Every structure is written in C-alpha cells, then in structure tokens.
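Worked Example 4.2. Consider the chain below.
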Amino acid sequence: QLRLVESGGGLVQPGGSLRLSCAVSGFAVRNYAIGWFRQAPGKEREAISGINSSGGSAIYADSVKDRFTISGDNKQRMVTLQMNSLKPEDTAIYSCAARPGECSRAAATYRYWGQGTQVTVSS
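Applying the procedure from the previous section yields the following structure tokens:
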C-alpha cells in the first residue's frame, strides 16, 4: 500500500512558474514508478511526465516539453514537477500516481493515486 500526497498547486499568471511535489510513503516505494497526470474540465486525463523506479525519467506530453521538468530523490519518496512558462491551457487538476516498474502514459495501469492539486493559470 502506498500513499501519495500532492502539494504546490495554486493560481499563477501566464508565464509564471509552479513547483508541484508528490510525497510518497509506504511499503517498497523504490519499486514503483511515479507519474504526473492532469485533467482539465471537460477533457480526458493526460499523462504529463513520469520517473521510473530505476530513476530514468520521461516527458510524455508534447505541450509541456522544454517547460516542465520532473525530478525525484533516489528513494522515490519525493517527486517534483517544475513547471515554467505556464500557459492558461495548463490549467487543470494535477495528480501523481504510482505503478510497479517503469512509468507509462496509460493512467489505468497506475495502482495508487493522490488526491490531486489544482493549478490555475490566469491573469
């Protein structure tokens, strides 16, 4: 059983930055990949980025490449998503999730989820 808690969301102006954190606790945390997803109102959930249990990372969404960076400590207990140059279309609820092994863009394969944190980009 894992527990994931997101923090760091909020209201930011276009062009601004936010840093989201996902605190992970529980049994055998190092065996799990952590992924970040977002869901905007009326839209499907979108895979943003993930970090493997081995430490490798990947950015999935073309819309956030060169703007978002994922990082994690070597024990997978804190995974951070640094978001720069934010745009109004980045507005969504951002959630982190965990699955055994390597990360995937398929949300259905993630076993544990946090409660989500709201990110609003608006002037």
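Residues 97 and 113 are 4 Å apart (CA to CA). The mean pLDDT is 92. Compare this with Example 4.1 before moving on.
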